[in-house]
UniProtKB/TrEMBL annotation:
InterPro entries to which the protein is assigned, alphabetical: Glutathione-S-Trfase_C-like (IPR010987), Glutathione-S-Trfase_C_sf (IPR036282), Glutathione_S-Trfase (IPR040079), Glutathione_S-Trfase_N (IPR004045), Thioredoxin-like_sf (IPR036249)
Pfam families: GST_C_2, GST_N
Provenance organism: Acinetobacter brisouii CIP 110357
Protein name: Glutathione S-transferase
Alphabetical UniProt keywords: Transferase
Domain (GST N-terminal): residue spans on this chain: 1-81
Alphabetized PROSITE patterns for the sequence: GST_CTER, GST_NTER
PANTHER family for the chain: DISULFIDE-BOND OXIDOREDUCTASE YFCG, GLUTATHIONE S-TRANSFERASE-RELATED
UniProt record similarity statement: Belongs to the GST superfamily.
Amino acid sequence: MIKILGRADSINVRKVLWLCDELNIAYEREDWGRGFQSPQAPEFVKLNPNATIPVIIDGDFVLWQSNSIIRYLSNAYAGQNLYPADAKQRAIIDQWIDWQGIELNNSWTYALMNLFRHSPDYQDPKLVEKSIQAWSKMMKMVEQQLEKTGAYITSEHFSLADIVIGLSVQRWYLTPFDKPDYPQVKRYYELLSQREAYLRWGNNGQN
């Protein structure tokens, strides 16, 4: 049984929890992060010098960084159906996982912190609008990719990339602002919502 350190309402922790449900990986979870035990605590920093969640402990193996964690778990716990060994198939999945972490994730930060989290540090209307425009541009890329595949983000098959993109789609819909009409993204959201694990960790009202 693996141990997952991180609060269950964190989008990055939910990546790991969703994957564990998809692969039937047994785990126990401890609450760390905002509102719970501080990741700045010395015992946590020993595990992750970044002081961020999630962290997993698998026997004597410790790993941090959510996208690295889901790749490791897919490799270690028979997740080849989600993260195939074929180099080209895997590269396309990695492409979208990394794009989410670098491009999509960075586009929404200011808008999310203003519109949903109501942070006093994110109150510049011009920067909110700039973030919304950047986020909408990134989501248009998702729309165009889904038009090509007709199903999931990389192909007709559900993959590891859909875990990170699927949670991002949930965040898109829950953050309150006027959005472009992206019918393929809506269809994708409804398709993912047929999965029990997505209803638990994605389409569950958490942003």
